[in-house]
Amino acid sequence: MASPFKILFFIFSIFSILSSITCSNPHPLDSLTPDELLQVRAIVLKSYPTPKYKLTFQYVGLEEPDKPVTLSWLSKPTTKPPPRRAFVIVWLNKQSHEIVVDLSKRSIISERVYSGTGYPLLTIEELEAAVELALKYKPFLASLKKRGLNVSEVACTTQTIGWYGEMKTKRQLKVPCFSLEGTVNMYLRPIEGISIAVDLEEMKVSEYKDSFVAPMPKAEGTEYRASMVKPPFGPRLNGAPAAPGQIKGLKIDGNTVRWANWRFHLGFDARAGPVISTASIYDPDKRKYRQVMYRGYISELFIPYQDPSEEWYHITFFDCGEFGFGLSAVSLEPLNDCPAGAVFVDGYYAGQDGKPVQVKDAMCIFERHPGDIMWRHTEAEIPNVTIREVRPEVSLVVRMVATVGNYDYILDWEFKPSGSIKFGVGLTGVLEVKAAPYTHIDQIKEEVYGTLIADNTIAVHHDHFITYHLDLDIDGDANSLVKTNLVTRRVKDKNVPRKSYWTVEHETAKTEADARIKLGLSPAELVVVNPNKRTKPGNKVGYRLLPGGASGPLLAPDDYPQIRAAFTNYNVWVTPYNKSEKWAGGLYADQSRGDDNLGVWSSRDRDIENKDIVMWYTLGFHHVPCQEDFPVMPTLSGGFELRPTNFFEYSPVLKTKPPFHAPWPNCTA
């Protein structure tokens, strides 16, 4: 009989072997780890030693393997995985250098200097340095003194400047400032009339104007901290009941998540935030997982404000491409941001110096029990028999919150046992406002481009357009987009009193031009099908798009912000898969000119029938602010859904087992 020591040694050896296999065989789509980020930094700095070169890391992310290579490995995960590589953009000698680092070879395998228009993702360090410059600038301090403000009670933020036809541009930021006197809700107390621009290359104030003095909005009524608000109070809310232990049925292996009948990979990117990959659903009849989505993430977020005045016209943000959703991720708060029992996941990105930065609890994964019904039926028409079957709705949610300046964006990916994937966005935070001399709307005689929501406070009209990159692989990567048009027809049989009915006409999009769609113009269903796979009755397997509210741009097509944001011209686009076409607003979004974005790619009008295709969906909000948005905005939610359509032979939730509930006690008077 083996000794206890030998048994323990054997167990430890097996554990060590398994651990080494796990570490040496990461998933090809795993985000870069802190150790890998440090390795990337060391390799780049070896080629550009800091005593000789001054460079900054603007973006470091996974250089994902070619899709066929990844799919091949996923079919045989015990084989050697593809090489781990990183895509790096560094700013050096006033140029963007694109570098691909091979981590296994510990070397740079490709490099090029970008010569096009636009600039890379801004770093947090650049934003902070610009603010620090402004707060120490003597003319600005004099302007504050003139207004009776103390610099110790002033906070500043940054704004990108966009592009308005200039032939030559430089990396610049605007620095608007706010008064903290009497409040921490800084965005509601703007210091109007001062314009500060900072040259990021020279790190100096490049432009300064003090044009006018406007009345300062009051601090009264802007407090939102629970410990500071004063009566009268609103209702006390009940917290969600505590749920002991972890979510039953949830398994996380590395970055692969398994729950109910779903399996997917979860990543984190400095620009996109959460990235969902290789989402597949288990089909018990076929006894295998079937592909649904290869890769999905938010590609860009465009927010044009609608005040064309000299002080405001430039405010047209590209939040993903300029500031980064991952860089803007905030730590989530248990029981408030995420319910009891949620599993928290950290995020990592490279700072300006290339060193890893941790965002603790950047994402959470939890079961949602909304109290809704997944399906039910009562059979009451059979004599002497009553049958009732009910199944509660339960889903799995992946959540992240990005705080970009004044707005907080709640990003949800929801997986349902029915096979649906729901995409949710919640908008909350604080409005962007400007100071004005008005205290009542009757005083306003000119265009103010917004709503008077409090004394001396105009909340400016604006839009939010969130564009998703959805590389759908419905039961395989050869897919087509089918427009199922609903058409009205007249009844030809004179013996029937009905005069009309509607039916469907199927239209397959053959090229990109066929798949540019503005929703709401005509009744239609959009279905991504696999024309090579059919159900037993002969239907093509597919997933259909259930859109949210259809909103499109209202800016003129020749307006500079809209040229840059041409990807919002349609709610739906379909393009052939191209590994380099990731960012709807272009790789270099800051001061971009619209010459490298989804609209340009789609203009090639490539074939998309029975191809590996990508769907791009834009969710839009036109925001006319109201007083209920003050001082902190209740969450405004929107979303859309991808729902199986002839994907399964029958309802995939027919045989779900209902949860056990203790018998309800009988109550007697």
UniProtKB/TrEMBL annotation:
The modification 2',4',5'-topaquinone is found at Y407. Residues 120-213 form the Copper amine oxidase N3-terminal domain. The active site is at D319 (proton acceptor), Y407 (schiff-base intermediate with substrate). Topaquinone (TPQ) is generated by copper-dependent autoxidation of a specific tyrosyl residue. Keywords: Copper, Disulfide bond, Metal-binding, Oxidoreductase, Signal, TPQ. One of its GO terms (biological process) is response to auxin. Contains 1 topaquinone per subunit. The keyword Oxidoreductase applies. The keyword Electron transport does not apply. Residues 251-653 form the Copper amine oxidase catalytic domain. Its cofactor is Cu cation. Residues 1-24 form the signal peptide. Homodimer. Belongs to the copper/topaquinone oxidase family. This is Amine oxidase. It comes from Corchorus capsularis. The lineage of its organism: Eukaryota, Viridiplantae, Streptophyta, Embryophyta, Tracheophyta.
